Amino acid sequence: MKKLILILAIAISVPGIAIFLSGCEAQRSLAMQKSGAQLWAENCVRCHNIPSPSAYNDVDWETIGLHMRIRANLTAEQQQKIVDFLKSAN
User: Fold this and answer.
1) Residues 6+ apart with CB under 8 A from 12
2) In angstroms, rounded to a whole number, what is the distance separating the alpha carbons of residues 85 and 46?
């Protein structure tokens, strides 16, 4: 009986895990298609007012980008897109 329950639990959880992982991959893929401006607008405003791109110089934006990558849970690519946008709009 215990083996049957274990087999059923595995049979039920494996498809669920596969669906979850495919959803995560789709979200990552969608995020990678976004521009730096889109990522900046969507992520930075979640926690604070977003500053003007001209508020800081290129070196400052690099430093801020590294800090905010951790705080906002951004990928390296997302962080670089945002920093590149901010530096180009400066």
Assistant:
1) none
2) 18
pLDDT in tens, the chain (90 residues): 767 675 656 667 666 666 666 665 655 665 568 999 999 999 988 899 988 899 999 999 999 999 999 999 999 999 999 999 999 987
CA distance 71 to 82: 14
pTM of this prediction?
0.64
* Other Cβ atoms closer than 10 A to 31: 17
- Write down the residue that tokens 């670089």 correspond to: 80
Structural domain spans, the chain: 1-33, 34-90
Based on C-alpha coordinates, what's the Rg of the chain?
20
Quick one: tokens of 73?
A: 């849970």
Instruction: Supply 60's token pair.
Output: 């400052």
